[in-house]
Amino acid sequence: MNPRRALITGITGQDGSYLTEFLLGKGYEVHGLIRRSSSFNTSRINHVYRDPHEASAGLFLHYADMTDPICLSNLIQHVKPTEVYNLAAQSHVRVSFDQPIYTGDVVALGAIRLLEAIRDFQDRWGYQVRYYQASSSEQFGKVVETPQTEKTPFYPRSPYGVAKVYAHWITINYRESYNLHASCGILFNHESPRRGETFLTRKISRAVGRIKHGLQKSVFLGNLESKRDWGFAGDYVRAMWLMLQQEKPDDYVVATGQTHSVREFCEKAFAHVGLDYRDFIQIDPRYFRPAEVDLLLGDSTKARTALGWQPKVDFQHLVTMMVDADLELAQREKTLIEAGHAVSTPKEQA
Ligand code: NAP
Ligand code: GDD
User: Fold this and answer.
1) Which of 138, 191, 267, 333 is the catalytic position?
2) Residue 329 — very low, low, confident or very high, per pLDDT cuts 50/70/90?
């Protein structure tokens, strides 16, 4: 049995896929929790998945769901992980206003279900499990100070943000009550070419690629004035791992320390292909939120000092990386369309 076994919830998501690659590269046996879906949901990890019967296979997938405590407990007992990364979430802030109870169930109660399963496993068998909780800068919401640090009080502005605050504090509570090696990474927005297509950055890079190739005429957005501290997901999963390698568990802000508006992201993304964003963006009130988070800017001094972490990809590089990837994707779509194939196109949603 490999002495380094990680269990990742949310393995099919953006961060789960980068973390899987990272941990496999470090020689871990990686186990992922996937939920049943009516269509395939493993596209981000298919490239690293091998036949589980092969001797060299390092990635194993298991059906479970954050809403089902029995299967979480069974999974922990079965995998006997040395590290658990809890990344699963209904992670879309706008959608959390439409599905507040489900979001709370998965994000807040999901975390305590997993922590309970780990606590029970440790008590029963004497194993030590290290736990990572995916906390979020969304917890700072209507920020009470700038920049935000580990000591900044939370003021969440969405059902998602409130649920993350619960998950954050219950993780700290389990650390203090049961001596669990549990750490929270308060990660600011991080993006990549694998970002879900309804998040702002990817919605824009996708639109730029398709507009440039003549597959789309414009893109509908909401608030252009909010500001985010945007980093690259590949850099941020390294910080998650570093947190679990420390002797003592703790909480860390992970951020670039730079903030940019939605408008600026649009400007740079369209400019990269020689277009003026003002010619292609339309405002649709449906994409405004009942309560907005206007400004996020993180101070990650603690992570940089204690973990030796720092980001390698800056804002300009992130924008061009995403647009270049989506230009290629749009080119492939165009080729298929010209050959008479049906392609599924991004819909205007969230
Ligand atoms: P993501 O791409 O939306 O991935 C979410 C993952 O959670 C997917 O694998 C999804 O599975 C899974 N999931 C959703 N509901 C589930 C359920 N009921 N049971 C089991 N799995 C479920 O999110 P991400 O960007 O990778 O973010 C990873 C984590 O970090 C999330 O907890 C997010 O809230 C948090 N976070 C993200 C950011 C950011 O900027 N990306 C910043 C701070 C914190 P399907 O593939 O089947 O949908
Ligand atoms: N999604 C989206 N779609 N956002 C838009 C749009 C649009 O059409 N138009 C403007 N925005 C604005 C939003 O109002 C928000 O101010 C900003 O763009 C970023 O939105 P998202 O990309 O959806 O991200 P988020 O900041 O709300 O949440 C992300 O980051 C959090 C960390 O701070 C998610 O990944 C969360 O899961 C994560 O915790």
Assistant:
1) 138
2) very high
C-alpha to C-alpha distances, 118 to 20, 75, 174, nearest whole angstrom:
21, 10, 10
**205 part of the active site:** no
Q: Which domains does the chain have, with CATH numbers?
A: 5-192+229-254 (3.40.50.720), 200-227+260-295+314-338 (3.90.25.10)
Tell whether the model's pLDDT for residue 310 goes beyond 60. Answer: yes
Rounded to the nearest 10 degrees, what angle do helices 315-338 and 200-212 cross at? Answer: 50
Phi, psi at 182, each rounded to 5°: -125, 130
pTM: 0.97
Catalytic residue among 96, 135, 136, 300: 136
Instruction: Look at residue 149 and tell me whether its pLDDT is greater than 80.
Output: yes
Query: Residue 194 to residues 15, 24, 45: CA-CA distances in angstroms?
Result: 9, 18, 10
Q: Is the peptide bond before 147 cis (omega within 30 degrees of 0)?
A: yes
Ligand 1 in reach of 187 Cβ (< 6 A): yes
Ligand nearest to the CA of 89: 1
Counting ligands in written order, which one lies closest to the CA of residue 283? 2
186 vs 140: CA distance, rounded Å = 10
C-alpha distances in angstroms, 9 versus 20, 33, 47, 73, 162?
Answer: 11, 5, 18, 13, 20
Residue 253 parent element (H or E) = strand 251-254
123-147 per-position pLDDT tens digit? 999 999 999 999 999 999 999 999 9
Q: Dihedral angle at the C-alpha atoms of 107, 227, 308, 176, nearest 10 degrees? A: -30
* Interval 72-121: pLDDT, tens: 999 999 999 999 999 999 999 999 999 999 999 999 999 999 999 999 99
